[in-house]
From TrEMBL:
The organism of origin for this protein: Macrosiphum euphorbiae
Entry protein name: Reverse transcriptase domain-containing protein
GO terms for biological process, alphabetical: DNA biosynthetic process
């Protein structure tokens, strides 16, 4: 999930990696353009993006928005329905 969230270009300067293969080579620096897995703040960023997406799209996808706001834990959807057609409709809204 983390690698699917693009970091705004202006903010990419705040997360980077310095790297070199061996000590005889110069250090190279890289900017990360996606939310990085393993940082303390990564789960917050991922969940905050989902929350904002749900708020932005609640008029277009009311069921999917409600699921994102209430039935999501870390990277798992925990929801259900009374019948197969209801569940399939929920899946379609979440994907859309």
């Amino acid at each position: 999930m983390f690698r699917q969230i693009q970091v705004h270009e202006e903010d990419q300067q705040f997360q980077g990696i310095v790297w070199r293969d061996d000590s005889s080579k110069p250090i190279q620096s890289y900017r990360l353009s996606i939310v990085t897995y393993g940082l303390i703040t990564s789960p917050y960023h991922a969940l905050r993006v989902l929350k904002q997406l749900a708020l932005d799209e609640q008029d277009n996808y009311p069921i999917g928005s409600k699921i994102l706001l209430n039935d999501f834990y870390v990277d798992e959807v925990m929801t259900g329905g009374d019948n197969l057609s209801e569940v399939l409709h929920k899946i379609q809204e979440l994907i859309a």
